[in-house]
Design a protein that fits this description.
By secondary structure, the chain is mainly beta. The protein has a domain of 70 residues. It is built from no helices and six strands. A three-stranded antiparallel beta sheet has the order 4-1-6, with no helix packed on it. A three-stranded antiparallel beta sheet has the order 3-2-5, with no helix packed on it.
């Protein structure tokens, strides 16, 4: 792993087939607020501050960038066309840094 960020670039994406709007989408599973106590100040938070899962529909030329620790998956492509995605894991290092910090 040893990556801080994950990027997914869309090279080609077919249109979603009728009845399968989730075909080929990127699902980001949010657990950040899962154990948080909900009260009058937090129960009605709206995206991007609300907890919950998020979907990204790939479009050619677009890219999703998110923290690498988020659980994610690309849903099965159920259309007749090809879905071409390039996934990159990114870690930034200081100049002269030889390895990851010991922590």
């Amino acid at each position: 792993m040893l990556a801080s960020w994950c990027a997914i670039y869309c090279v080609a994406a077919p249109p979603a087939p009728p009845g399968r709007a989730d075909s080929g989408v990127l699902r980001l599973y949010e657990s950040r607020l899962g154990g948080m106590f909900a009260d009058a100040t937090t129960w009605a938070l709206r995206p991007p501050f609300a907890g919950g899962h998020h979907l990204w529909r790939p479009r050619p030329g677009s890219m999703a960038l998110f923290p690498a620790h988020l659980a994610h998956e690309v849903a099965l492509n159920r259309s007749g066309g090809d879905l071409v995605l390039v996934r990159v894991r990114i870690r930034f290092a200081n100049p002269g840094q030889q390895e990851a910090p010991p922590w």
